[in-house]
Amino acid sequence: MFCSTAPIVDDEEQKGGCKVESETLHSPLTEILNDIPPTREEIIQAQKVDSFCRKLRNLLNTNENGQKELCKAYKKDSKYEHYTFRDWKHKLRGYILDTDENDGSKMLVFFNPTHEEELDDSGNGSKAVKRALFTCHVDPLSGHAGRSKTLDRAKLLYYWPGMDRDTRIYVKACRHCQQYKPSQHKKCAGPYTSHNMTTPWEVMCIDLMGQSQHQGVSLNGF
Predict the structure, then answer these.
(1) pLDDT at res. 124
(2) How many domains does the chain have?
(3) What are the two backbone dihedrals, phi and then psi, of residue 35, each rounded to the nearest 5 degrees?
(4) N or C: which end of the chain has fewer CB within 10 A?
(5) Are 103 and 129 in the same domain?
(6) Are residues 144 and 167 in the same domain?
(7) Beta strands across the sheet bearing 158-159
(8) What is the pTM of this model?
(9) pLDDT at residue 127, rounded to an integer
(10) According to its UniProt record, what is one Pfam family this protein matches (predicted)?
């Protein structure tokens, strides 16, 4: 949860000869996140900083022989020392570099075709994940939707490995939802208390049945 450490200042308080505006519910968040959602340039910059996205970009920028050389170099990293060339080819499935015709910038995207349309989901770096989740959940236009709706909205705009887990943790840790949203858990019925019967027909039970779909039944259908 992003939070500002600056104290809340009253409207009437003056600081440096300028009137200080009061902070709103989202002002600490928007102050840190600045522009929302992240722009194409910011996503590209985050991909270059993220180690995994940077490796995928380098592999897609070269031919097969160059990819083999890069895979050998990646083995020096203890995290990827067991990755073979085939493993990296498997990781590259679905990823492409989307090139802008105007400035020639390349953004790593995950190509996910569907029956109705073809979606290009931008692959986010680790630093852009929280900003993307803020856009899909905390932003006033998102309305603090639940985990399923937040995840569906994020999948329409972005892609990164572990979207389900990150979305679940982010929504669960949202302080605004914890304070104001009613609990979504259904209340269970209390324990059954048995009754000691003393006289016949003290308690009667009846089973309610719907109309029978089988043939050969009586005219009333039950």
Answers:
(1) 58
(2) 2
(3) -85, 135
(4) C
(5) no
(6) yes
(7) 95-99, 106-113, 118-123, 158-159
(8) 0.40
(9) 61
(10) Integrase_H2C2
Q: CA 106, CA 157: separation in Å to the nearest integer?
A: 17
Percent share of the chain, pLDDT over 70: 70
pLDDT per position as a tens digit, 20-78: 445 555 555 555 455 466 788 888 888 888 888 888 888 888 888 888 888 888 888 88
As a whole number of angstroms, the distance between CA 128 and CA 33 comes to 10
Chain centroid to Cα 78, Å, comes to: 29
C-alpha triplet 34, 136, 143: angle, nearest 5°: 100
Q: Which residues are within 8 A (CB) of 31 and not within 5 positions of it... i.e. 6 or more apart?
A: 4
Low-confidence ranges of the chain (pLDDT < 70): 1-37, 111-127, 210-222
Residue 72 and residue 130 in one domain? no
Give a yes or no: residue 4 inside a domain.
no
Domain range for 176 is: 125-180
Do 51 and 103 sit in the same domain of this protein? yes
For the chain, the distance separating the N- and C-terminal CA atoms, rounded to the nearest angstrom, is 58
Q: What is the pLDDT of residue 33?
A: 52
Dist CA 150 CA 48 (whole Å): 26
Encoded tokens for 98: 């989307």
Strand partners, 110: 95, 121
Q: Are residues 106 and 45 in the same domain?
A: yes
Per the CB < 8 A criterion, the answer to whether 134 and 36 are in contact is yes
Q: What is the pLDDT of residue 222?
A: 52
Look at residues 166, 140, 141, 136 and name the one whose alpha carbon lies nearest to residue 152: 136
